Amino acid sequence: MTTADTTPAPESHTFEADAAKLLQLMVHSVYSDKDIFLRELISNAADACEKLRYETISNPALLGDDPKARITLLIDAENRRLTIQDNGIGMSRDEMIDALGTIARSGTKAFMDRIQAVQEDKGAQLIGQFGVGFYSAFMVTDRVDVVSRRAGSDEATIWSSDGKGSYTVAPIATDEALARGTRVILHLMEDAASYTERYTLERIVKSQSGHVPVPISLIEKPGAEPQEVTDGAALWVKPRSEITPEEYTDFYRSVAGQFDEPALTVHFRAEGRHEYTALAFVPGSTPFDLFDPDRYGRMKLYVKRVFITDEADILPRYLRFVRGLVDSADLPLNVSREMIQESPLLAAIKKGVTSRVLSELEKLAQNDAEAYSKVWETFGAVLKEGLYEDFEKRSTLLGLARFKTTASGRVWRSLKDYVGSLKENQTAIYYVTGTDLARLEVSPQLEGFRARGIEVLLLPDPVDSFWVTAGVDYEGKPFKSVTQGAVDLAQIPLLEAQENAGVLATEAVMGFIQAVKATLGEAVADVRASERLTESAVCLVAPETGRDRQLERLLARAGQLGSAAKPILEINPRHDLIVALSNLGDAEQTLREDAAHLLLDKARILDGEQPADARTFSQRLARVMQRCVPNG
């Protein structure tokens, strides 16, 4: 044993910025449910045991003479201490610094930003919405000590912190009670003394960690014998008939790192050519990392109950919100994580689990439209990515898709509903894309469609601009943008007679439209009389071929647009303003030219854009306004 004279002084370190920020939020915030810390620490301990099981496949000697995984809670009420100990893989000194001093998980910034937003909302509860891992211990402690010894190593290390910005790391003499694994010692705050009560700990463990596939025991006081609290039977291997909804919810909360109710539970066993069990959940609320740029899934892969990896891409990216696991009976235990990705067995599992999840979503949509609408409200923008990425499942995804439309108010509509309401002679499914639902609802390009009762899909998500261009159709009906190309609505009658609806454009109006085209020159691809406008004077549309204007804007923001197509300016030949402008004489040439440019800028503004030249726009507008002033 190392003597006091030769024991190296503890090294002091500062938490990395993200970890320090998270600690700050946790220590200085008030939570309704601090019990969550125990679930998180037990989950970490179980993961350590599972990682040891995986490593012992190739190195059985790591088990030594202690082959059975276990997690133990040790109570020391007199000193107000609670210890969570496991005999899992353990950590080396460097691993402790990396694991406990930083937040290495992908999507950290989004995680921190969302926690900050929720924390600032006094009506929201942070705990129960996010998995906060090891750092949750600081909600109930004055200090946390972590002693760990990696399997196969003779060296142990102690990590210690009060959660106020720094921590220390030092070597420590090992003892027989920690031949390997990790011991987390919580020096509890005075108002957290209840966590040294046996009843309290048993209640929390059974309600939140009863599914953990490692036995959990409790030692009521120093020197007492351990008593088993849970048996470590993996939930997913049990028959569905033996699992209660509460047990499913507890497992979901642990595997998803959330504290809401699952919106959908999918639990099945595949037999035959490939044998595996899948337990998957659709969350009831948005996971913080839903739009993580890396877009990894969160499905764990087990082989014969041995944890292999949580990066196996079991589900396609458009189902990345699904949480859960797959346990295969066929994959070899000694296969590397890298080789798994290339395994045809995993490809078959991925196909099977994807089909089953989509099938269960279809059943939910059929049997409980209200519940499914909530799922779509939360995850529809992600599911629609599959319309662009997964040709094989496109038909299924189109059936699952829901839309707000010009005819639905704010109620979700299916494409089946839409096609069932087609007007006579309507041959396409019309849509409009943008970034804001309220702005889309008042788009001038919709006027002619609304006047004829033609329903138009309102598509406000960025992905909408991509999947509609992928050659998609539904029941033989193509998707057509109301803001692109010419539109022929003459075959569909107006809902009611409208003033000037049947009035043909006068020769003067058509002459004015040609004059506008000549004035604008290269600024537009064309200027033409509009069939789609009934109320507004002007609007912009994209040419028949090429990209929709919203798609061009998205590509431009991403720096992926080489050159933008020039827009087409459509003019309503029956609008009072246009008729008045067309009657201006040759002496008003300057006003006619100003009007031409102002009409284009007006159309740009209606399209959510800025005038091409703000200074020139202001000057033209001033000249026109001066004409309205007496003696101007």
Keywords summarizing the entry:
single chain, Four Helix Bundle (Hemerythrin (Met), subunit A), nine-stranded mixed β-sheet, Ribosomal Protein S5, domain 2, 23 strands, Heat Shock Protein 90, about 20% strand
Overview of this protein structure:
This protein has 20 helices and 23 strands. A nine-stranded mixed β-sheet has the order 1-6-5-4-7-3-2-8-9, covered by helices on one side. The radius of gyration is 32 Å and the shape is elongated. By secondary structure, the protein is α+β, with helices and mostly antiparallel strands. Strand 2 and strand 3 (81-86) form a beta hairpin. The protein has three domains: 11-230, Histidine kinase-like ATPase, C-terminal domain (Heat Shock Protein 90); 236-373, Ribosomal Protein S5, domain 2 (2-Layer Sandwich), CATH 3.30.230; 507-626, Four Helix Bundle (Hemerythrin (Met), subunit A), CATH 1.20.120. The longest helix has 24 residues, at 344-367. Helix 16 (507-520) packs across helix 19. The N and C termini lie far apart (99 Å).
How would you briefly describe this protein structure?
The protein has 632 residues and is α+β, with helices and mostly antiparallel strands. It contains 20 helices and 23 strands. The radius of gyration is 32 Å and the shape is elongated.
Topology:
Layout: E1 11-14, H1 17-27, H2 36-58, E2 71-76, E3 81-86, H3 93-101, H4 108-120, E4 141-149, E5 156-161, E6 166-172, E7 181-188, H5 198-208, E8 216-219, E9 227-230, H6 245-256, E10 264-270, E11 276-282, E12 298-303, E13 306-309, E14 323-328, H7 337-341, H8 344-367, H9 369-383, H10 385-389, H11 394-400, E15 402-405, E16 413-414, H12 415-420, E17 429-433, H13 437-441, H14 447-451, E18 456-459, H15 464-467, E19 473-474, E20 477-481, H16 507-520, E21 526-529, E22 538-541, H17 549-557, E23 568-571, H18 576-582, H19 589-606, H20 614-626
Parallel strand pairs: 2-8, 12-14, 17-18, 17-20, 21-23
Antiparallel strand pairs: 1-6, 2-3, 3-7, 4-5, 4-7, 5-6, 8-9, 10-11, 11-14, 12-13, 15-16, 15-18, 19-20, 22-23
